[in-house]
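Dataset card, provenance and construction

Sequences and ligand SMILES were collected as paired inputs. For each pair, a complete structure of the chain with the small molecule in place was predicted and serialized as structure tokens. The example below shows a pair involving flavin-adenine dinucleotide. Curators did not alter the output after generation; any descriptive sentences attached to a record were derived from the structure itself.
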Amino acid sequence: MLTERIFVPDGESALSDKSYLAWPWFEDRHRELAAQLQDWAAAKLPALLGDHRDPDASCRKVVAALGEAGWLDLAVPGEGAGFDLRSICLAREILARHAALADFAFAMQGLGTASITLFGTPQQRARWLPGARSGRHLTGFALSEPDAGSDVAAMGTRAREAPGGFRLSGIKTWISNGGIADQYVMFARDGEKYTAFAVAADAPGLKLVERIEIIAPHPMATLQFDDCFVPEDAVIGGRGAGMRVALGTLDVFRPSVGAAALGLARRALDESLSRAIGRPMFGARLADLQLTQVKLAEMALKVDAAALLVYRAAWARDRGGQQRITREAAMAKLYATEAAQEIIDDAVQIWGAAGVRSGAVVESLYREIRAMRIYEGASEVQKIVIARSLLKSE
Ligand SMILES: Cc1cc2nc3c(=O)[nH]c(=O)nc-3n(C[C@H](O)[C@H](O)[C@H](O)COP(=O)(O)OP(=O)(O)OC[C@H]3O[C@@H](n4cnc5c(N)ncnc54)[C@H](O)[C@@H]3O)c2cc1C
């Protein structure tokens, strides 16, 4: 069992800037959603995560509560509803500002089912989505392997035809919700191409190899598909469509990683303001020193720039339906995660020694942000994606 702390703020700081909600790409329904989720998070999350020592149990509790309150409808939309990426990004930003584990739990229900929502058959949607939407079952997305992370096409997990279905063999690692999910979407090499499968966690031959502890505690594991049998109707989006399914899914969730980073960054800015205002120093306050003001100004600038890129990407997808938003998504994810890392580092500096004390909010933020620059496409990968989109028309 992991024993580290996860920050659970006791409500929203009065300093939190909400002026961005007036930006033109939000509609009234987005502003209402933000207000309601903010109230819900402030009221419910401290009790759900307050004395948290066990990320697995906390995740289950939070997913159940998110489902019961209807928030998971955003990540796992009902039949015919489709994704509204602005709503997903707002939800992730607000949840992350309160408690990173709550954002993680919300996001994983979406990431682990979006391939089915977007590319699944009506039967697959009926089988897997209601449980994920209600928070009754947890989901995972199994793409990465020990020798295939950024280089997804190097994946070694294989699908072989067998009577009535397929046999899957290989190792998937760094799988969020690994070991506690009830269902995974996984990807395997299928001849010259790749195929996506919906797999029940209790499928014969699907084994837990190890639980992985990381810098900020989240449920995570390495899984082995040991001649794991899945029926023919487990194929998502048709045989050979695996890369399209994976990239289509990541297109939705990549900007939302930026939104989660933005939530952590806003929290860091709030914490910095309250510390700078409250800390007496040299006969005045830390906030009165111009070097502090420069830091605060740069933090606020980066927060707004990140928000502009994140919600630009979300709006572009909502407006364009299924149209790819590869460049906008890459810019949003890249900038928001890199900027949040810098903002949080400055927040720790403003807090001084109290900022590196185990359990301090900014200390937790410092651990939480790091992995976001690596998963769902490392920053270097996003830069390559952006450059390719610029050079494509040459
Ligand atoms: C917290 C967390 C949660 C995760 N959850 C999941 C999950 O649920 N499901 C899943 O499938 N995977 C998950 N992952 C795995 C994640 O997707 C991979 O870590 C990511 O794709 C990078 O792969 P890698 O770790 O193997 O790094 P590598 O591919 O070995 O890359 C290492 C580094 O190389 C650099 N790099 C990459 N490409 C280039 C390039 N072209 N030029 C120069 N440098 C480059 C980057 O800095 C990169 O970070 C998770 C990872 C973390 C940390």
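Derived descriptions for this record:
The beta strands are 139-142, 158-162, 165-176, 183-190, 193-200, 206-211, 220-231, 235-236, 280-281, 284-285.
Residues 1-6 have pLDDT under 50 and may be disordered.
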